[in-house]
Amino acid sequence: MASQIQHAYAVAIRAAAKKCFGNVKxxxxxxxxxxxxxxxxxxxxxxxxxxxxxxxxxxxxIPLPHQTRESK
Length: 72
Known about the structure:
mainly alpha
């Protein structure tokens, strides 16, 4: 499940970065992220960190995950 969540975020981040910044490299530069690491994360070669998700939320408007559990 974790890899599916990371993949979903990677797809959303790549699309939003292209729309908002023109490309992923410009997004990395604008947000002070390490481009090499970010590129690996978006290709699934490195683990996405919570800070990556937070940055995507702040700079790209990607919503944070929300999950509710119903009481049994």
